[in-house]
User: Fold Succinylglutamate desuccinylase from Pseudobowmanella zhangzhouensis.
Amino acid sequence: MAVHPVLAAAGQFLHLSRTQAELFNQPQSLSLSDGTQVTIHAAGIIEFAPINAATQAILLSCGIHGNETAPIEILDAMVQDILCGRLVVKHRLMVQFGNLPAMDIAERFVDENMNRLFSGAHSKAPGLVNQERIRAKQLEDCTRAFFLKDLLPRCHYDLHTAIRASKNDKFAVYPFLHGKPWKAQQISFMQACGVNTILLSNSPTTTYSYFSSHQFGADAFTVELGKVRPFGQNNMADFAEVTSTLRALVAGEALNLPDYQDDAVNLFSVNQVINKTQPDFRLHFADDAPNFSDFKQGELLASETGHEYRALVDGEAIVFPNANVALGQRALLTVAPVTLQQANEGKADV
Ligand SMILES: O=C(O)CCC(=O)N[C@@H](CCC(=O)O)C(=O)O
Ligand SMILES: [Zn+2]
Assistant:
C-alpha cells in the first residue's frame, strides 16, 4: 500500500499544507503504527484519536494571525512528532494552523483580522466574502464537530504572539464566562506553561477562544507567548515550558500543577474596551510603550473626534494598543489588578 504523503514527508503536515494544499482538498484518514487514528480535515487542520479511551478533547490552534510564528513552530514540531511516533497522544487532539495564506506573506492577515470573525461573525456581512471569512467558518465547523463528538471535558488553547513588547512577556486572555467562576486549576495550567499574567475578560467577543468557551464550555484562553518574530527567528528555549506542558497534556502525563497562589500570578480584570470609531483615532503614549505600561487616573490614553479616553483608576495598564485597526474594532484594552477571590466574588465555588 502507498505510504500516505504526510508520512512520506516525515510528518511535515504544515509544510505540505502550505506548499501542496491540493493534497488535502478532500478529508482523509490514516492510521499510525501505534494505532493512533489520524483525520486530515483540510490543509492545516488535523485530528488525532488515541487507541485507548480518551478522557479529554484538546484543541490547539495557532497562526490565526499569520505572522505570529513561534506558536506555529511549536505546534508544527508537535504534529511532526506525533505523525512520526515520537509523541503518542492519550487524548483526542485537534491541531489547527489558522491562516495559511497570511503565513505565506508574513502578515497578520490578508484581508481581515480572522480573530474578529468567530461566533458566526464571518457570515454577518452578506455579500462580503474573503479567505479569512471562509477559513474562520471552516475552523468553526471543524471545532464544532470535534467537540460535539462526545461529552469529554474540552479545552482550547489558541496560541498567539503580541505585536509589541510586554512588561509581562507571556500572558493570556481568559474569555468572558458570563458569571461562571474563573478556574484556579486553569490559571495554574497557564503558569505551568510559563504564562503568569492573566486578563479576565468582561464581555463577549468574536475571538476564537471565546467561541470555544461560550459555545462548547471549553476551558479556553488566547495565549500570548511573547513578541512577533519572523519564521526561524524565535529562540525556542523561550518556549520550553509551554512546549513541554502542552506535550505532557496531550500525552496524558502527570502535569503536577502548582497550587493556585495569588502572589504567584498577575491577575488583571479588563477595565475598558476602547474601540476605534473615527478615522482620526490616536494613542497618546509612545509607539514603543510595552503592554502593561500603567497610567495615573485621568491621564489621556487615546482620543478621536468626539471622545477622549482616560485612565479611570491609578495603575490602569494598557494592553494591545493598535490605532491601525478597522473602524468599529478594539484599539485598546485597559486592565487593573484583581485577586481571584475578588474576581469570583458572589460566584459558585471554584
Ligand atoms: O499585540 C496585539 O496588539 C495583538 C495580539 C493578538 O493578536 N491578540 C489577540 C487577543 C485576542 C483576545 O482578546 O482574546 C487579538 O487581538 O486577536
Ligand atoms: Zn494574534
